[in-house]
DNA sequence: ATAATTTATGAAACCGGTCCCAGGTCAAGT
DNA sequence: ACTTGACCTGGGACCGGTTTCATAAATTAT
């Protein structure tokens, strides 16, 4: 019991026990609203807890219970609208379930991802949600035994990992086919990371293959994450030898950059299809795919606290503009 | 020591001590890279830790150390661009300092804020950052003794609270005076919460008073948080009996809504001054105040882990468009 | 009246670490 | 030879809870 200026600042369960003339076991029972405590003792203990303004120590309980009621959310960066929406879903669901959500930025660094996986081993989190990853699925799976691990992509076949993901393939194919019906013969593509580990990249290539055939290097711009990157992409396609009729972008803000480049050059803006249904596509009035990322976050959270090793598919909507 | 299919899954410091023939104290010294351990013992212990793939339990260390290296960030909702930028700053700074950042949504509910303050008492966090609040400063101050509390507004006079805030007053006055030089005789204002607890609301009123005189009800629209709210505000001012020459908005996305209403009605858009320098003001080309919210978040974090009861002022920039 | 439950309580182990302190070795200083 | 101080080591208290288990009283069932 630590005092400061006469007022009690910190108390523990032993103080309460001593002052109430009971044992810590009994106090613990009162704290946890368990049966088998005499009414008078319960009242007395509650009164003393009230009086000393006692609050049980969260960390001690976590240690004893072997769980922290905390979920770690692994993401490259927090300020990107894609992740912001997913986080929003996770945080909302987490709040309702009484869980704490901790943000774990990686900047796509595998070493840092490993660090968080080690923290999972150290019981710092009950589960990890990978909204994006650089490590292999094998690596993630290897840590599965230390806690639930949820990834936000289709892990395919028989994985031990839980997964919440959007139906990218279906929505991409739908969007691209719609573009064909609009008379767009050639379609440019803008991607973020051009590697096999990015689910978005992989699926975009597959969907493109199915609808437009092989994706050539000239029709592809990679490394786009922000509006300014999109602007660069716009410049690339504007100056291209064989211009494309429309561009399928990996995000609305990037799409806005593409659009804006043409506007700034006083050229007719090339039709763009974006993703995420952000304000930018609404303002510039181009089509987009809404992946319902809040729902994705909620699903990921449910999987994180559930023990069921399952998959959840979130349907996307194509918004024609 | 818990095994699963032959492989060791969980070990603790006692296992390491037993297997290495040393005491727990010595193992602890090795874990923490302390002096006074014989080279051969150190090597042996390290080898065994390696072999069993031992990771110290985070929660146990936290309990013993009396700190969690976790900062709670209190905010109304996570998906709003204002808070997204502040979070980004906090998370970045937290990562560099080896701290965990937990998001605590309140939806402006005082009861929920209280709940988080109680958690601070329960040692769940080392400090709390209030990016926004509904509780009074007195209330926050009352919990100050349980941990550092940082608020993101100017708390004025002699408060025990640490504070990181932007120079709203200066930037608002600057922006409004600039508007006057542009010939805008009457200025509408859009606010989020029209109560005295919102720093933004309070300062906007004061700045308006200083430049334009008394803020009348007819020149004010409140309750705006999103683009759609801004759209409503646009409708309000478009249909007003005494139209305003320009509108000072509490956010770029809201400003975009205002702007867009006029566009949709085929009316010449009314000049808007936004805040936060988001993509929307860039796309629609209206002036805005950049509060450098990432820097605000970083400052807030520094105050959260520092014991110095200080204030940090972040300068804003007015971006004329 | 006796056996079987249910209720009530506290001692003590446990969760998995940190750290103070006592005790011992050994080389340098006087 | 004797003090001094740096180096090593382990026992055990401590952080603040939860939970098992033994014990006993009060009910209920037979």
TrEMBL record, chains A, B:
Top-level taxon in the UniProt lineage: Bacteria
Residue intervals of the HTH lacI-type domain: 11-65
Keyword DNA-binding: yes
GO MF annotation, one: DNA-binding transcription factor activity
Record key words, sorted: DNA-binding, Transcription, Transcription regulation
Database matches in InterPro entries: HTH_LacI, Lambda_DNA-bd_dom_sf, Peripla_BP/Lac1_sug-bd_dom, Peripla_BP_I
SMART domains reported in the protein's UniProt record: HTH_LACI
PANTHER family, per database record: CATABOLITE CONTROL PROTEIN B, LACI-RELATED TRANSCRIPTIONAL REPRESSOR
Protein's UniProt name: LacI family sugar-binding transcriptional regulator
Annotated source species: Lactiplantibacillus xiangfangensis
């Amino acid at each position: 019991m630590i005092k400061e200026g006469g007022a009690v600042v910190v108390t523990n369960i032993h103080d309460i026990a001593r002052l109430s003339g009971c044992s810590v076991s009994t106090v613990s029972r009162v704290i946890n609203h368990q049966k088998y405590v005499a009414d008078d003792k319960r009242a007395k203990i509650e009164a003393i807890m009230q009086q000393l303004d006692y609050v049980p120590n969260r960390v001690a309980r976590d240690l004893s219970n072997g769980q922290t009621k905390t979920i770690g959310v692994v993401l490259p960066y927090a300020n990107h609208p894609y992740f912001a929406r997913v986080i929003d879903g996770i945080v909302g669901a987490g709040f309702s379930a009484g869980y704490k959500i901790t943000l774990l930025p990686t900047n796509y660094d595998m070493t840092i991802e490993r660090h968080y996986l080690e923290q999972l081993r150290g019981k710092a989190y009950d589960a990890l949600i990978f909204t994006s990853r650089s490590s292999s699925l094998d690596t993630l799976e290897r840590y599965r035994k230390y806690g639930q691990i949820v990834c936000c992509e289709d892990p395919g076949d028989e994985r031990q990992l839980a997964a919440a993901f959007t139906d990218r393939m279906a929505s991409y194919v739908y969007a691209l086919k719609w573009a064909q019906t609009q008379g767009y013969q050639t379609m440019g593509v803008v991607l973020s990371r051009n590697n096999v580990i990015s689910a978005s990249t992989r699926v975009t290539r597959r969907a493109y293959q199915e609808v437009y055939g092989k994706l050539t290097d000239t029709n592809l711009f990679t490394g786009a994450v922000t509006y300014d990157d999109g602007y660069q992409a716009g410049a690339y396609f504007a100056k291209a030898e064989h211009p494309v009729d429309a561009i399928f972008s990996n995000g609305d803000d990037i799409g806005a950059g593409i659009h804006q480049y043409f506007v700034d050059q006083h050229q007719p803006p090339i039709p763009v299809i974006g993703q995420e249904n952000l304000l930018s596509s609404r303002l510039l009035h181009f089509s987009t795919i809404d992946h319902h990322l809040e729902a994705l976050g909620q699903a990921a959270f449910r999987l994180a606290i559930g023990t069921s090793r399952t998959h959840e598919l979130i349907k996307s909507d194509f918004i024609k503009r």
